Amino acid sequence: MQRLTQLKTWLTARLPGQDFELSPASADASFRRYFRVRFADGSQSRIVMDAPPEHEDTRPWLKVAELFGDAGAHVPEVLARDPDQGFLLLSDLGSTTYLAALTPANAASLYADALGTLIAIQKASRPGVLPEYSRELLRRELMLFPEWYITRHKGVSLDERQHAALETVFDRILAVNLAEPQVFVHRDYHSRNLMYLADGANPGVIDFQDAVYGPLTYDLASLFKDAYIHWEEDFTLDLLARYWEAARTLGLPVREDFSDFHRDYEWMGVQRHVKVLGIFARLCHRDGKDGYLADMPRVMDYLRRACKRYRDLTPLLRLLDQVDPEPVEVGYTF
């Protein structure tokens, strides 16, 4: 309550003479909170970010907002800032996410818009500006899986042989990931972080504060192997091919051969989904946020499908079968 009072005091000083009300705008998997600021006179609403400085730092968000905005992405406009207190007043991109707006009828168009924005961000890439998506960071993400998913969520203790097999396959995954061309990476470019805008300037891009400089296919894996919505593979493969063609034409450093590019994408998806399973388990067991458990089967399905396609991922598939066996479908004949 004290934090909310502090926020209202800060807003009042920046909105003199304006009557307003606050309402929750969105949930977040971190300590950040977002409120919608509605005005009594009916003027355009705003969003205020509350990022307690003992837990969050608004400066990375501000830096990436400028980078992505300069590249042509539709990011929230910063109207007022106070990094020391952890408050930002932003333009309001609405409350309709891609997840809520996507339908079979509009999916091709909305994803084309999302790819256009992603290409613009990638075209603006240069090293030394954002943190590197290093081997250490990628590996630290992978290690969330044995700690939080296998041990804590599934209640399984790996033996020495299983640990060794997991380490070996993690090394293989990282070798493929780190051999990719490098670009700016949003790191959570999916249907919950892309906003559907009624004026057609899609997508609005949010939640980019963890952006890095890393593997080119990472955001594509986030977008088309989305933890929150599933599309048939022939549909996403067509979009992926369209991206690859456009990226080559515009000079992005994609692989010359589509099959090599697709393999990078698949293996990047494996890294992401191993990480996401660990994160979802941690959100549940450490943070008390169990809403993500419903999305775990979709993530596991993506992971299993990729592992079945590549012999070098067989040890991971075998471990998944031991830790989290697939349900056996029973058929009856009469």
TrEMBL record:
Keyword entries, A-Z: ATP-binding, Kinase, Nucleotide-binding, Transferase
List, for all copies, the residue spans of the domain called Aminoglycoside phosphotransferase: 22-248
Instruction: Please list the coiled coil stretches.
Output: none
Task: Give a single Pfam family match.
Answer: APH
Matching InterPro entries:
Aminoglycoside_PTrfase, Kinase-like_dom_sf
Q: Which Gene3D superfamilies match?
A: 3.90.1200.10, Phosphorylase Kinase, domain 1
Q: Where is the signal peptide?
A: none
* Keyword ATP-binding annotated: yes
For whether the record's keyword set contains Nucleotide-binding, the answer is: yes
Q: Spell out the protein name for this chain.
A: Predicted phosphotransferase related to Ser/Thr protein kinases
Q: What is the native source organism of this protein?
A: Aromatoleum aromaticum (strain DSM 19018 / LMG 30748 / EbN1) (Azoarcus sp. (strain EbN1))
